[in-house]
Amino acid sequence: MPTTQVASGLTTNKAPFIELQRAEGNIYIEQPYGLYDEQNQDTWRRLYARMRPRWEKYAHPKFLEGVHNLALDPDAVPRLEDINRFLCPLSGFSAKAVAGYVPAYVFFDCLRTRAFPTTITIRDGKLLDYLPEPDIFHDVAGHVPMHTDKRFADVLVRFGEVAREAAVMVQGIADKQQQLRHVESIIRGMARFFWFTVEFGLMREKPGSKNLKVYGSGLLSSYGEIEHCVTAPEVQRYPMQLEWVINQSFEIDHYQPLLFIVDSFDHLYELTHQLEQWIKAGKLENLAPCEPAISEADLKSFLEAGV
After folding, report:
1. Cα(141)–Cα(138) distance, integer angstroms
2. Which of 215, 216, 218, 299 has the most CB within a 10 Å radius?
3. Is the pTM above the cut of 0.90?
């Protein structure tokens, strides 16, 4: 850790500590808990207080179990070491502090090793409703409670294994133009799968039930969208179809107009296995273009993966 003194406050896009870590090229960091100021703590309290009733109404029961099992403190930004003390014995997962954006393959490979890259900054208290990038409330209160469930955790590990198989495959392509085209399409397909499941997924309360529960972290961390996604008549909700999902673009700056439903965590695991089979069969090499955009860092992470 650097010895340079930095100002207190870990507000997203305003944290000198994070800027210093990025300037030094650090991806993985320690959570400097003492830098959270009172405004940061107040933001956490307000976010948690208003979300709790909506979780109880709309969240999947396994998420609510996870909130309980993690002993999340409604009054203070969580310490990741405390989160991990409860989380690791349940599923082997841990929350791993990062300084911001993590390239695609690096992120997926962390999942394979049961580590979840976790943002430590928290949104500005004046912007509770929308944040164009993750913060600790999205990552810890939205994602991590689901990681306490072993079956869901196994889905994440399986997804990381799929990324590893994809990286091995694309590195074996000799023609560089073909290699770039294929890896970009595969990353886009995997990102779409992750978006419509782990981030914005709906699940039947019980197999065959018409009642829907939320398990996707983007919905679980959004005060407005968690209700909207289940009750709004304009939202399109369809049973999960892999060929549709991997060709479906999405945008991040508004409520999602289209969501997909899985029957169970076993169903989701089976879909992840199917995704791997489709990658091996070449079915993700020429997907529909458009969002999400794939960055140079994402491409490089797959092409240079140490597999």
Report:
1. 6
2. 216
3. yes
